[in-house]
Amino acid sequence: MADITEVEFIWKNGELIPWAEATTHVLSHSLHYGSGVFEGIRCYKDPDSEKSFIFRLRDHMERLARSCKIAQIDLPYTVDELCDATVEVIRANKLPSCYIRPLVYRGYGVMGVDPTGAPTDVIIAVWPWDAYLGPDALENGVSVGISSWRQRSVNAIPPAMKSTASYMNSILAKMEAKAHGYAEAIMLNEAGMVCEGTGENLFIVRSGVLSTPPISDGVLEGITRDTVLCLADDLEIPALEESLTRSDLYIADEVFMTGSAAELTPIGSIDERVIGKPGEITRQLQERFFAVAYGKVEEYLDWLTEI
Ligand code: PY5
Q1: Cα of 106 to ligand 1 centre, how many Å?
Q2: What is the mean pLDDT of residues 74-95?
Q3: What is the pTM of this model?
């Protein structure tokens, strides 16, 4: 049984096609070797104004284009065309709020590791998706554990490339975390420093200062991470990008994760070390994040694409 809310249309290679017909051949290159790149984006409906906005659409599509560049995939559409296609598929499905999943993948045509000759297929799927880490995760926080798996290193699968292949690493860590009763895993990098969650960046607060691992420690350059750093600046919360050890997490006053799917999720405990209820700074940033996403903050309206 599919644990996904099906809608009417998916955009594929320039056309809207029925959800059930958006299939691919079992010998598609990316199904065998993970040669795809993707994005995760959200569209929010402001409950007051009832307007819907896609959050930082252009920034996501630009990252998708950068992922293609690293993966040496010729993207057959411009960033503008992909942004327009996203608006088109949301409107066609009449969705007030949704998650958006663009995927560029090497399709059916060759079976060697060398992808030369495989076609490039592009899809944009949308569907309603609730809080990623559980129904009360945003409100009450989640328990997480440090994974025994290390995050892929910068010279293995580059973190700047949001590739499907990288998520085998995330899957191993996520399944281990769930088996131990945690909602999410935190992965260290090969050097043993804190890296990120399986689909989220990580922040800590200690003595009123916000810290997050630098890009050079192997984290995805998250768009929500960048958003939080901008909002912290507005709120005059000092913020640093600095390497963190696992003990820095255990003794932090507040810890939270960020991502398009996970939004801004507080962490209540790490490896049974209690952090506690969502703290003041986490709450302030969460509140401002949703105000911005709902189009209530004038200076950030250019981050939003109205549907
Ligand atoms: N780190 C990793 C490994 C991620 O997969 C993601 C996003 C992030 C950080 C946060 O990036 P951003 O803030 O730009 O979303 N993960 C995807 C998402 O849609 C997929 C999760 C299932 O959030």
Answers
A1: 21
A2: 98
A3: 0.97
Is 51 a residue of the active site? no
CA distance 148 to 141: 22
Tell me what the mean pLDDT of segment 131-139 comes to.
91
Catalytic residue among 45, 51, 94, 162: 162
Distance CA 147, CA 170 (A): 10
**How far is the centre of ligand 1, averaged over its atoms, from the C-alpha of 257 (Å)?**
10
For strands 98-106 and 120-127, give the pairing: antiparallel
Cα 122 to ligand 1 centroid, rounded to whole Å: 19
- Name the nearest CA neighbour of 249 among 183, 185, 191, 294: 185
Mutation choice for ligand 1 from 101, 174, 215, 260, CB with most ligand atoms inside 8 A = 260
Whether 1 has a pLDDT exceeding 80, the answer reads no
The per-residue pLDDT for 134 is: 87
60 sits in which H/E element = helix 57-71
